[in-house]
Amino acid sequence: MKELIEKINAEFAAFSKDAEAQLVKGNKAAGTRARKSALELSKLMKEFRKVSIEAAKN
Fold first, then answer.
1. Domain count across the chain
2. Which pTM does this prediction carry?
3. Range of 49's domain?
């Protein structure tokens, strides 16, 4: 679970950086990267939910 949380934090940091670049500088490529990171974050959050529920059962 610790490794999963580290992946989530790293992906969110990348998302934040790219989203900020799109917002402030109008960088279209950064927007594409931010959307890709958002999809990956969604997947990671679903995985976290599964792992968290399993851990709560034990």
1. 1
2. 0.87
3. 2-57
